[in-house]
Each structure stands twice: as structure tokens, then as C-alpha cells.
Amino acid sequence: MRKTNWLLLALVLVLSSFLAACSGGSSSSGGSGGDSGSGDSASGSANGDQIFNMPITDEIPSMDPSKVEDALGIQWVSEVMEGLYRLDENGKPVPGMADGEPEISEDGLTYTFKIKDNAEWSNGEPVTAQDFVYAWQRAVDPATASEYGPYMMGGVVKNATQISSGEMDLEELGVQAEDDKTLVVELEKEVPYFQSMTTFATFFPLNQKFVEEQGDQFGLEPENILSNGPFEMTEWNHSQSMKFVKNETYWDAETVQLEELNLTVVKDTSTGVNLYETGELDRAGLSADFVDQYINDANFITEPEPTVFYLKMNQKRGGEDDTPFANENVRKAVAQAINKEDYVNVILNNGSTVIDGLMPADFVSGPDNKDFRETNGSLLPYDLEAAQAAWEKAKEELGTDEITIEMLGDDGDTAAQTSAYFKDQLEKNLPGLTVENKQVPFKQRLELDNAQDYDLQVAGWGPDYVDANTFMNLWVTDGANNGMSYSSEEYDALIESANGEHAGDPEARWNDFLEAEKLLMEDAAIAPLYQRSRSALQSPKVQNVFKNASGPDYEYKWAYADNAAAEQ
Amino acid sequence: MGKYIAQRIGYMLITLFLIATISFFLMHFLPGTPITNENKLSPEQREIILETYGLNDPLPVQYVKYMGGLVTGDLGVSFQYDNRGVTQILMDRIGPSMQLGAQALLIGTILGVLLGLVAAIYHNGFMDYTSTIVAVLGTSIPSFVFAALLQYVLAVQLGWFPVATWEGFSYTILPTIALAIFPMATCARFVRTEMIEVLGEEYITTARAKGLKGSAIIFKHGIRNALIPLITVLGPLAVGLLTGTLVIEKVFAVPGIGQQFVSSVTTNDFPIIMGTTLLFAVFFIVMLLIIDILYGLIDPRIRLAGGK
Question: In this predicted structure, what is the pLDDT of residue A42?
């Protein structure tokens, strides 16, 4: 009897020392990840199974980097692949496939990148400069019919615009392989944020032989995908679940601690919350109606996003006939007549914050390291008195007491409340104004926007790359996204100078953008509303998942699971 | 019989042709294009992309092309999931939906018929009232409320079943129950009414007078006659169940065709919209044919096509 007890004890001791050795091993191998991270990563370390179970809101439409065009595709292509650069935890581009910083010619137009010697595809072939040439040509090839290819490369990489509209041959694209590991890129103009752009899926390399073998099936199944990024896709049950595992051939595999990422397609918020509550998922997105219930939960998080929403005030219906918004005072009145604070707190209720300018907070900072929003401050806030004064003036100028406008909005849940709230605010605060709400499906709203067939529209914008330009160039005269006939010579000149003459001078360029925003707000070109946040429940085991400002929403390369934290 | 079926299949093809034609033109009234980032593209780029989707041709040309493909069984490729074949997508999605639908139909009908019979036999008794209450609740509670309730109580609180997703038989139980409630309630109400009526018929009285046992009366003379009207209800019900339901699929995260249909409409994925519509149509038409054939088998008085 006694003997067996001792035996048992001995066994337990041996076992526990084994276990301790194992867990010690995994945390030390995780050390490299801790090094590159900072601050918050110090509190915990990787322990237990390195597995995340995450929800995904829908099927991934495509894993072809030249063709991805939605948030989900961009997110997961960016985890299995890597461009010249990758965004780190601070949202700064750090070399990925590129071996160190590129050599940049004096005029800022030619970049010479070295490709890492240990950069490999998951089939063992090296990643070469030719892979970039092929991929970039493919992205702007009209035959590919990529949406982002021409959008991201046009006006940036030399001749991209002409090639994508079929006026030039693919070979004329400003990207050449000098040798296997040397990539020379010629730009159309000086682009100070070019490194940041190369983190975007359209700029990822592609192994020509592999892609051509797969034909039109490329990117549609795990076996039709070749990885050069931190993870590999191993399972893809369409519309149901996906599995990503650590890519051992990744050049920086020792930094990657996460072994497995399982995604489950969950479209319903309450289902997601239930799966989270039963421990099957490590995260659940929350819509506004769930926030009140969970706001005091220890694992409740809100993540601000650099996405801003505003009212577009169309000055010319169909691009021809003046609307009331052609009058500056009407714009000023509308822009200042909505109580935005109440709107974000009561109707949105998801951590979104009021914004009184175009540029979101915590997105870009200047040479002085000060945030753009902080520097320019509040430019067009809710101000009832100013709104009503402008309104009286406007009515006088237009010679009428009754003005009717049509407000265009989406037809989602909060969209209905949004339209009703804005209508109420505007009609109450601006006597004589009648707002007719028109709610349409998203696709139809875009169509009406393109045709400029609206007066007032609730719209939003998220960045495509980390630079002030991604927001500031939206309203140049006849810009693809203007869609409201706003035209200011002064504003156009500032944006042109920021991207031309001042492109190489960070300070002057920064000031151009600051001035441009002030001008927009003085003209009340748009009425800024709010900066969006996401609310979610997230298990404390999820560590070091970085929220990106552009490209993929999240970065998992440096992530790890702290299972001990989850058990506390 | 053979001639009748051949004739019916002929009519079915004509119906399908009409449905395909009407849906094709209606679909093109949907606002917008399948392009995801419309406001990021220049007009020329838009044209290039629409060209590759084949959407720049005049509508009649697109129509002829589509119908040409259809005749050879080619449903085209999806816009939304680039290059993925529509046939493959539909095949993948219809599986889970059909499994759920079939299970729910089976359970719903069996329970519903039993409930209805019991209610009719114990007319105005305790069992009758219980069954009526169940039937009224089943038809009046919206399925999404019921589904959410089932999920919360049986899966989250009690942990008896998986919460959601689609990984094996145990995952199908809750959605099946949620789906089965409505057909069960419908069947129960129908069978009860019919059975009460049948039991009041003179031939039942005759049977009783002959001295037949109660059970023999019910099973031999009652049920068979009471079930005929049920078949009329079951047909459309079966189509509805087998072709998936958006709500139940969404709540239980089932990769079914109901969700696929809705998402293809919101993304203007024309080939998938057409494919799903046609699939639903085929289901419906075939089901109608089966019902008509069943009528003849159950009730000899009904002669198909006036044949001999």
C-alpha cells in the first residue's frame, strides 16, 4: 500500500519536471517574439497550446493577391504571403521580403531593393526579384481585371495607368529584375509612403510557374496557394471554416509563435457571443445592442479604427444642376447642426468617437511626432448658434424660406436610426429645412453616388496605405471619389504640391496636408461625423495581435497564446 | 402513367425556361454592379472589369449566351468568388440545407401526425388542448426566436448540444428541432381537423356498426383518408425546408444555400443568383409532380390525366 503511494509520488514528480521542461522550452523559444514586441507584451508570455480559434464574418472570396478586393481576402492573404515590407506593431513598415532598406535614387524615383537570401516559397523555391516583376505586371494586366491593381499602382509605379487601360505592354511597367535578388522599381512621381504601399496584397510576389500551373483555379483552394508569409492555409471548408498553420519555411519562422489559427464562419452576432461564452471561440465581435450587456466584462475591448464617416454634400445634382449645397452657408449650417456626441453615444454605442475634421485620430503623425488630429484640432464641431446664423444667411442668399433636400443612406440596422436621427436634428435645428430620407442597399448607394444623384449622403472612408494622402486627396477636383462637385483651386494646389514639389520635404508636405484639411473644413466641403470603433469580447489568452491602420485589419505574425492568463 | 409523366416533364421544361427568362431580366434591374470597390475605380477601369464579367454586351446578347450555357448544363462562374464554378458552389451549399430539411421534415411530419391523431381521438379532452396549444405556439413563434432560445438554453446553459457550426451529426440536432417545429405544428392542425371530419363520416359509423375494433377503424379507414389533404400541404413545405432557410442557417452557422442566396443578391453575383433561383424552381416543380403521383397512389379515386 505504502509502496504504491511512493511510486505514485515519484511518477508525479518525474512527470511534472517533464512538463515544466516542456513549457519552459516553449516560452524560451517565444523569446524572440517578445523582443520585437514591446510594452504590453512584457506582461505575459506564450504558454500552453499556441492555438487561436477566431470568428470570421463570411467566406473568404479569394486568396489571389492580385485580385483580393475585400477586407477578409486582404486579411488572410497577408498572413500567408508577404511583400517587400510588413507592418509592425506600431503600424510602421518593416522589411519583409526586402533585405534591409532600399537604395533610393536622388530624385526619389528609383528604388533598388535586395531580396532576402533566405526568403522562400513553401515549396522550397527561393523568392526572387522576377516573382515581384511577374506579380506586379499581373496586377495591372487588364486581363486580370483586378480592382486594386490599377487603383494602388496607378500613378505610383511607372506606366501602371497606361498598362492597365491597355495602352502599353506589360513589359513597360516600372519594375525590373536586375538579377535574382535585385529588384529595381521606377516610380511615376516621388511617393514618400511607397514602402508602406508594398505591404499591401497587390504588391506581393508570385511564383510565375506555380500560378500558371494553377490557371484559373489559383487562390481558390489551399493546394492552389503558395506561401511566403508567416502562415500557410491547410484547410478551407468553404463558407464554413478555415485553418492556418505556422509556415516553417518562412524566413522569420522563429519569431512566429502561433502554431494554429482556426477560423469559423459566424455571421450572427449572438451566435458568435454564444460560441465565445462556451469557450469555442477566443473572440466575438459585438454590435451596438450587445455593448450595454458586456461593457463591464473584464474581456470587453474597443478598438478604434482609422475609418471616418461624414456627410457628403453634393453641390451639383448629376454634376450639372446646383443643389442648395452649392451655397457655402447651407453647407456650414448643416455641418454644424447635428449633435454628434449624442449620436455616437446613443445610436452607435460601440466606442466610436466624434470627429470634427477629415483625418482620423491616431493614424498619422508629423515630423514633430504630433498626431494630425491633435495638431489641427477641432475644426467643424457641433455649434448650434453658428449653424443657425449660417442658416439665416443662407436663406437670405437663396431668397427662400423653405429648402428641401434628399438624404441618401444605407439600409442596414443602425443606418435607419442614423437617417432618422439626422433628419430630426436638421429639421429641428434649421427651421424651414425639410429632409427627405432615401435608404437604399449599399450597391445602389454607390451607383447613385457615382451618378451624383443625391443631395446629402452618409458615407465613409478607410485608408489604403499609411499616409495622410489616402484621406487628403479624396476631394481634388474631378477625383474618382469626389462625387459631389467640390472644387477648390487652393485645395487642389496644396495636394499637388504635397505629392510633387514637397514630396521629398516631410515638413512642408505635412503642412500642406494640415492646410488642406483646414481649407476643406472652412469651405464645409463635407460634414465630419465620427471615427469608427469596433467592440468585441476577447479572451485574455489572445496576445500581441496588432490592429493595423491599413491593409489587413490584424497582424498575427507576432501573436501568441497566454493560456495561463485565460485561466486566472 | 408513363405518358402522363412524360407530358408533365415537357411542361416542367417550359416552366423552367420561363422562370429562367423572367429571373434573368428581373435580376438585371438590381442596382449597381458586381464590382466591390466601385468608388476606387476610374470609369475606364470599371469598363474593363465589366467587360471581363461579360456585362458590357447588350442584355439580349447576355441572355442568349446564358441560355446557351444553361442548355449544356453550364451555370457559369461566380463573380464574387472569382472563377469558382457556380455548379460546385451550389452542390456544396445544398448538402447541409437538404440534410437539415430532410431531418426536420421527417421529425416534424411524424410528430405532427401523431399529435394530430391523438388530439382527434381524444377530441375536446386534455390531450386535444395540449396538442392545440403546441400547434398554435409552433405556428406563431417566429423561428429565429425559437432557434435563439434553443441555442441559449440547451447549448449555452445546459451544454447538452453544440452551440453552432457544422461539424457532425450532433451539430444538426438543434437546427433540426428549430426547423421541425413549424411543419410539426402545421401537420398537427391539419391532421386533427381532417381526422375529426373523417371520424364523423358515415362509413366510419358503418364500420363501428359492423363491430370493428376502434384501432382498426382508425388505422384502416381513418388515417388513410385523413392524410390526403396533408400531402398538398407537405409539398411546398418540403421545398421550403429542403432549400434552406436564411434564419436558421445564420443562427446555427450552417454553410447552407439559404445564406448563399442572400449574399449573392447583396453582392450582385448574377451567376449565383440565377443558379440558386433555377435550383429552387427545379425543386418546386419536381415536388409538385411527386405530389400528384402520390395522390394517385393514396387515393384510388384520383386518376391521373383521366387515364384508365
Answer: 42
| Domain encompassing residue B109 | 89-258
A237 touches chain B (CB under 8 A): yes
Cα separations in angstroms, A180 against A126, B54, B221, B229: 9, 39, 86, 76
Provide CATH code, domain A85-215.
3.90.76.10
pLDDT band at residue A110 under the 50/70/90 scheme = very high
Find the helix packing angle between B2-27 and B270-298, rounded to 10°.
150
Three-state secondary structure string covering A270-336: HHHHHHHHCCCCCEEEECHHHHHHHCCCCCEEEEEEEEEEEEEECCEECCCEECHHHCHHHHHHHHH
Query: CATH number, domain at B155?
Result: 1.10.3720.10
Check A271 against B45: CB less than 8 A apart: no
Tell whether B138 is covered by a domain: yes
SS3 A346: helix
Q: Report d(CA A409, CA B48) in Å as an integer.
A: 28
Cross-chain CB nearest to A70 (options B30, B36, B40): B36
Domain residue spans in chain A? 85-215
Task: For residue B82, give the nearest of A62, A150, A277 by CB distance.
Answer: A62
Sequence-ordered list of residues with C-beta below 8 angstroms from that of A466, at least 6 positions apart, any chain: A87, A91, A92, A93, A193, A196, A363, A364, A549, A550
Query: Which grid coordinates are listed for A161?
Result: 495607368
What is the mean pLDDT of the segment spanning A32-39? Answer: 36
Question: Residues B228, B298: contact at Cβ < 8 Å?
Answer: yes
Beta strands A526-538; A353-354: pairing state: antiparallel
Average pLDDT, chain A: 89
More confident residue, A29 or A200: A200
**For residue A39, what pLDDT is reported?**
38
Give chain B positions within 8 Å (CB) of A166.
48
